[in-house]
Amino acid sequence: MEIFEQLMGGFATAATPINLMWAFLGTALGTAIGVLPGLGPAVTVAMLLPITAQVEPTASLIFFVGIYLGAMYGGSTTSILLNTPGETGTMVTALEGFKMAKSGRAGAALATSAIGSFVAGSIAIVLLTLFAPAVADWAVQLGPPEYFALMLLAFVTVSTVLGKSALRGLTALFLGLALGLVGMDQITGQVRYTGGVLEFMDGIEVVLVAVGLFAVAEAIYNAMYEGRTVSTMNRLTRVRMNRSEWKRSWPAWLRGAGMGFPFGTIPAGGTEIPTFLSYATERKLVAPQYRAEFGSTGAIEGVAGPEAANNAAATGTLVPLLALGIPTSVTTAVLLTALQNYGLNPGPQLFQTSEALVWALIASLYIGNVMLLLLNLPLIRLWVKLLLVPKPMLYAGIMVFATVGVYGMRQSAFDLFLMFAVGMLGVLMRRFDFPIAPVIVGLILGPLAEAQLRNALSIGEGNWSVFIERPLSLALLLIVLLVLITPRWLAWRRRA
Known about the structure:
Blueprint: H1 2-14, H2 17-35, H3 41-48, H4 57-82, H5 91-102, H6 106-139, H7 144-161, H8 166-180, E1 183-184, E2 191-192, H9 206-225, H10 243-264, H11 272-285, H12 301-316, H13 318-324, H14 330-341, H15 350-353, H16 355-376, H17 380-383, H18 391-410, H19 413-431, H20 437-459, H21 466-469, H22 471-495
Antiparallel strand pairs: 1-2
C-alpha cells in the first residue's frame, strides 16, 4: 500500500503540464534518434547533458529517460524496413523483420514491434515499481564465474541456432571474438592486434561494425546482385496484424519480457543477450507449420520476442541504477552522470533523500510508454511509405545515413574506410551464407567475457574448478552442454 501511495505521488508530479511536455519531447526525440543508424540514446543524452544546468532535476531526468525508451522503439523501424539497425539491441529484429518487409508484411512487423514493446515495457515498469530493491540485491550477488558462464551460454546459443550450419555460426562467432580483442587489454593495458594502426588502439566500435555488416552490406549486395535476384520488398499487403499473427505474437511478447527484465538488472551485456536468447527460444518453440518462415519469408515470433526482450531489458537497467547506483549500460552510465550533476547519488538512500524525484521518474515511465505506443502505431502507415522509395534512392539514402552516423561518432575518416571494409566482409558472408549476428555477439561480449574469465580465475587463484564449485555457474555450464549435445543427439536418433 505504501508503494501505491508513493507511486500516486509520483504521478501527481509527472503529470504536470511541464513534465508531460518534457516526457513527450524525450519520447519523440528518442524515436527519431533510434531510427538513425550510428546514433543512439547514450550519444544523445551525453550531447544534451548541458541542459542540466538550466532545467530542474525531475524534468531533465524525465526527458533523458524518455529519449532512452524512445530509442528502443525507434531502432526497430529501420531494422524492419531497411535492414539497418538504429541500435545494437534491435539487430536481432532485422533478422526476421526485414524478411517480413520483403514479403509484404512490413505493417505486421512494425505493429508487433510497437505493441510488444509496450506490453514488455509495461510489465518491466510494474516489476521495477514492486521489486527494484530485491531484484538489484539478487543481481549484485552474481560473481565473475556466473557472468562468464552466462556469456558462454549466449555464445553457444546464438552460434548454433542462427544460420543453417553450426560450423558456420561458430566461425562467424570466432571472427567477432577476434575483432573484440583488437585494441588495449582492459586489465594489463597491453596493446593487441592493432598492426601498428593508432586508430585501433581504442578497439573497434560495435556500432561501426553493426552498420557495416547490416546497412552497408545490404546496400552493396543489392547493388551487385539486384539484377540476378527477384525481390518483393516494395510489395505491401497490409499495415496491421491479422488474427493468426496476434495469436502467435502474444506468447512471444510475454516470453521476451520475462527474459529481458532480469538481464537488464545485471551487467552482462545489456539488451543484446536477452534479444538473441529470445530469438533462439522463439525459433525452437515455433509451431511446426510456421518453422519454415524463419530465415526465409520472416516469422513474426522472431520480431515479437526480441523486441519485447529489448524493451524489458532497457527498463530493467534502471533497477540497479536507482536502487544501487550501478549503471549496467552505456546510457545508464550517462544518466548516472546527469544525476551526479545535480548532486544526487543513486543508491538505497536515493529513495529516502529524493523520494519525490524517484517516484516521479518511475511514474513518467508509465506515461512515456503510453506516449510511445500512441506515437508509433499511427506512424506505421508513414513508415511503410519508405518501401515505395525507388531502390537506387533508397540504398543511396542508407549509405548516406550510415556514413553520417559513423562519422559523427568520432569524426574520423578512418572509421569510414573501416565501415566500408566491414561492409564488403558482410557482402562475402551473405554470398556464402554465413550468419552475421554471431559476429556482433562476439564483438560485444568477447571483451566482457574475457574480463570475467580472468576475474573468475583470480578469485579461484588460477584453479578452473571455481566454475563448478558455484551452483549457478555449474547449472549454466550444464545448460551450455545441453545446447551443444541435444540437437546432435536428436539428429542421431532420427537417423537411427
